[in-house]
Amino acid sequence: MPVPQADSAAARRAAERAADLVNLLAEDPEPGQVAELLHAHGEVPPVSLEPADVAELREAAARLAPVFAAADVDMAANLLNDLLATHAHPPRLTTHGGSWPWHLHVDRDDDGPWGEWLLASSSLALATLVADRQLPPGGVCAARGCERVFAAAGSGSPRRFCSTRCATRARVAAHRTRGA
């Protein structure tokens, strides 16, 4: 009997949002910058964040970062199980008061704290990717000096870089090293 799966496309989008938030929050952003990123990932404006909300999100992002850096699928699964056990609540369906189609949440409620939302929703999305792919849900950029995380939700060769820019810089540096 097939195992029921959450919407993989929605999980990929949520995992990408989580990676973008982990990266942005590592830079100590202003509330407006975080709100812009959330809006870019589909949150309906206005997204109103206070400095305390950003601090809470930063703490949550720091708890998610090791999942992206997990060396293997077992480590990623164990980290996600710990996060889900600590931060997820029973699954519930919500439309956010009719603003969205019905979708699954594992946070406490629609008006819960931002950090709880980020940990619960991201853990569910990343766990879905692990279950779908049987691989870690992301990685840390392999480019020298870059520590950005990324969601690895596609098929094909394992992703090593956070962006085309980092991949190109690494290839150019390797080419120069070989030619020297």
Could you give a quick summary of the protein structure above?
By secondary structure, the chain is mainly α. 54% of the residues lie in helices and 7% in strands. The protein has one domain: Orthogonal Bundle (Jann2411-like fold).
Main beta sheet strand tally, sense and closure: 2 strands, antiparallel
Our Rg estimate from Cα atoms comes to 17 Å
Unreliable parts? 1-5
The sequence of SSEs as H and E is: HHHHEEHEEH
Q: Can you give the mean pLDDT?
A: 91
CATH class categorisation: Mainly Alpha
Q: What is the total tally of β strands?
A: 4
CATH architectural group: Orthogonal Bundle
**Largest sheet, order of strands side by side?**
1-2
Distance between the termini: 57 Å
Helix content: 40-55%
Let me know the CATH homologous superfamily. Answer: Jann2411-like domain
Q: What is the 3D shape? A: globular
Total helical segments? 6
What is the count of distinct domains?
1
Structure description:
This is CGNR zinc finger domain-containing protein. Residues 140-178 form the Zinc finger CGNR domain. With 180 residues, the chain is mostly helical. The chain has one domain (8-139): Jann2411-like fold (Orthogonal Bundle), CATH 1.10.3300.10. It has helices at 8-25, 31-40, 51-68, 73-87, 114-133, 164-179, and strands at 92-94, 103-105, 138-140, 149-151. The protein has a two-stranded antiparallel ribbon with strand order 1-2. It has a two-stranded antiparallel sheet with strand order 3-4. Helix 1 packs across helix 3 (51-68) and helix 1 (8-25) crosses helix 5. The longest helix has 20 residues, at 114-133. Mean pLDDT is 91; it is low at 1-5.
